[in-house]
Amino acid sequence: MKNTVLFVAMLLVSGEALRAQEFPFAEGSMLGISFGFTGIPFTISGSQIKGLPRTIISDKFLQATYSTEEINRLGYSVGFFFSRRSENNNWLGGELELTASKHISGFDYSDIKGLTYQMRFNYWYVVPELTGKIYIKSVFNDNNQSLLNGFFLRAGLYGMLNVSPKNVTYTHQPQEVYNKPDWVEKELQEILQGKPDFGFIVGVGYEIMISDWVGLSLNARRRFGFSDVVVAAPNTYGFESSIHNNMCDFQVALGLAINLSNK
Q: For position 85, which CATH number holds?
């Protein structure tokens, strides 16, 4: 009983100390680096690039004769960001970010003739993003020392420049029937062309200053692309040149920033 009372007393003292602490959030400018993961399993149904099977498989093949499964693999990103939080309206902010991002998408195919194949699109992108941020608690309460003051919503626009547009891999089975897949892979790399993308982005995040000079940022975001990210050059395979295989990915990133406004 004595130990229980002592433990409860320690919790109360710790709680009071926590409430008494200040949690300063930077108003002004922050410059930092970020590390993240894209295509996190269980966050996206199917591939990050939607509609790939409809691009590759000709309409002349009856859907009852084959099946496909879209694949989503974990990718990663690294980048730089510049963040600004208004000093006069501390509920409002914005962020400009430039990242290098690896995306791995594709699908598996099988048909009634026993052919199976696996196609992967392993693309590297350079991604500029411009977003506005609203700090949730600050909208309702101007107490800048609250621990909850770092939560924010964000929305904006992004662009994605594909810097590895031919990075397509392919393999099939059984090779004793359909020969080695190397020549097919080489043709696919010439026919299927990775393209730039642009669209809008939404997300949530949290920021906290761990010293007068250094802050941490954790955020999750979802991108919704407007354009086809894979197109097919003229070919004899029946690939569609454009059929809305747009980007739809999820990313989580951790940022480390320096307070440029510290005086």
A: 2.40.160.20
Report pTM.
0.82
Residue 9 located in a structural domain: no
Q: What is the per-residue pLDDT across 170-204, written as a single tens digit (0 to 9) for each?
A: 999 999 888 889 999 999 999 999 999 999 999 99
| Chain-centre distance for alpha carbon 167 | 19
Residue 18 lies in a domain: no
| Beta-strand runs (E) in the chain | 28-38, 66-85, 92-111, 116-135, 151-162, 168-173, 192-194, 197-209, 214-225, 230-232, 248-259
Best CA proximity match to 205, nearest among 102, 47, 85: 85
Helix boundaries (H) for 65-205: 136-140, 175-178, 182-191
Residue 12 lies in a domain: no
Token representation of residue 211: 């010293």
- Identify which of 73, 6, 3 has the alpha carbon closest to the alpha carbon of residue 37: 73
- 14 part of a folded domain: no
Which of residues 239 and 204 earns the better pLDDT score? Answer: 204
